[in-house]
């Protein structure tokens, strides 16, 4: 039986990435084109290969057998091409989903130096705090706190430990006073953060006598934008809370005051994460290697 090899390539992309949308992004075609190719292949073989849902694609028993039989030969072909083209500069479209407080990525220098080193790679950064499946949404990788990275992902540290910081403007503290203990925060105007409109404001976590505890502040102002939190705090609207590297330049200049520091300790920071694959795309490999080499060297003194 003769089958168009392009249909097999589409099938393997769906099998590897777990969704039609992710396969379409990888192949740089529309989701409809992927769906039509799968249908043609299934019609040609006379059997179902993939069970489609709105969010994912699950292989049938026949689909699993076909994937297992095809993966080896196609992997060998890719390895041979990589060997032949090993000296070629990586190119392509690199899509990243980055948490809004991941300053080491969003501050600019890390991405700028990567873009300079690899002019053939087009970089698309989506800033989002929503809990999303990066494969389902067609991203090559994501950046967020290690504690929320799925365990089946490969994770590479972006810098070292981080520390959260509570701050307020000097004028605010002169007017309202300063909380002596984190639990006093419930009596002060606060500026809170939430990842999405339907989510509750983030609970502020502190450390005391070897134990982590959280405080559910009742923020007068709530937002999903850390920059808005920062600007509101600078204007004297209340006490706010996020990563130290976001606030440190303003604390150093005396525009904000760090409070409750004795109750805050460092913890594992941000990670670049991506699906485990036997064969990583050269564009992603280049970015992973760049992060490993340069993430610790990026100065945060220019965060504004």
Order of strands, widest sheet: 4-3-5-14-6
Low-confidence stretches: 299-304
CATH C-level class of the largest domain is Alpha Beta
The structural domain count equals 3
**Cα-based radius of gyration, to the nearest Å:** 24 Å
Helix tally equals 10
- Helix and strand sequence: HHHEEHEHHEEEEHEEEEHEHEEH
Dominant shape: elongated
Count of beta strands: 14
Largest sheet: 5 strands, mixed
Describe the secondary-structure layout.
Layout: H1 5-17, H2 20-27, H3 31-45, E1 50-52, E2 57-59, H4 61-84, E3 92-98, H5 103-106, H6 109-117, E4 121-127, E5 141-145, E6 153-157, E7 164-168, H7 170-176, E8 190-193, E9 204-208, E10 211-215, E11 221-223, H8 226-234, E12 239-243, H9 244-252, E13 257-259, E14 270-275, H10 282-294
Parallel strand pairs: 3-4, 3-5, 8-11, 8-12
Antiparallel strand pairs: 1-2, 5-14, 6-14, 7-12, 7-13, 9-10
Please give a structural write-up.
This protein is α/β, with parallel strands linked by helices. The chain folds into three domains: 5-84, Arc Repressor Mutant, subunit A, CATH 1.10.10; 92-159 and 269-297, 3-Layer(aba) Sandwich (D-Maltodextrin-Binding Protein, domain 2); 164-263, D-Maltodextrin-Binding Protein, domain 2, CATH 3.40.190.290. The chain is 37% helix and 22% strand. It is built from ten helices and 14 strands. Helix 1 packs across helix 3 and helix 1 crosses helix 4. The chain is elongated, with a radius of gyration of 24 Å.
């Amino acid at each position: 039986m003769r089958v168009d090899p392009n249909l097999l390539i589409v099938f393997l992309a769906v099998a590897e990435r777990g969704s039609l949308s992710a396969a379409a992004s990888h192949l740089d075609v529309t989701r409809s084109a992927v769906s039509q190719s799968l249908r043609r292949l299934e019609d040609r073989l006379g059997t179902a290969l993939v069970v489609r849902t709105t969010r994912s694609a699950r292989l049938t028993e026949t689909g699993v057998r076909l994937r297992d039989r095809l993966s080896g030969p196609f992997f060998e072909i890719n390895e041979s091409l990589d060997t032949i083209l090993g000296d070629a500069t990586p190119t392509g479209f690199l899509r990243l989903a980055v948490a809004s407080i991941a300053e080491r990525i969003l501050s600019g220098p890390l991405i700028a130096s990567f873009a300079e080193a690899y002019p053939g790679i087009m970089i698309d950064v989506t800033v989002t705090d929503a809990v999303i499946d990066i494969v389902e949404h067609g991203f090559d990788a994501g950046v967020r706190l290690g504690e929320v990275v799925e365990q089946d992902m490969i994770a590479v540290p972006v810098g070292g430990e981080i520390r959260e910081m509570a701050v307020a403007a000097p004028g605010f503290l002169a007017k309202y006073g300063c909380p002596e203990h984190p639990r006093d925060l419930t009596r002060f105007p606060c500026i809170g953060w939430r990842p999405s409109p339907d989510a509750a404001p983030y609970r502020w976590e502190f450390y005391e006598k070897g134990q982590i505890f959280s405080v559910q502040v009742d923020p007068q102002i709530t937002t999903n934008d850390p920059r808005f939190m920062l600007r509101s705090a600078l204007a004297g609207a209340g006490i706010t809370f996020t990563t130290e590297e976001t606030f440190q330049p303003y604390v150093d200049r005396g525009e904000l005051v760090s409070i409750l520091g004795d109750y805050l300790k460092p913890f594992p920071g941000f990670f670049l994460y991506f699906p485990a694959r036997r064969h990583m795309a050269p564009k992603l490999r280049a970015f992973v290697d760049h992060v490993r080499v340069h993430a610790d060297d990026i100065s945060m003194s220019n965060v504004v």
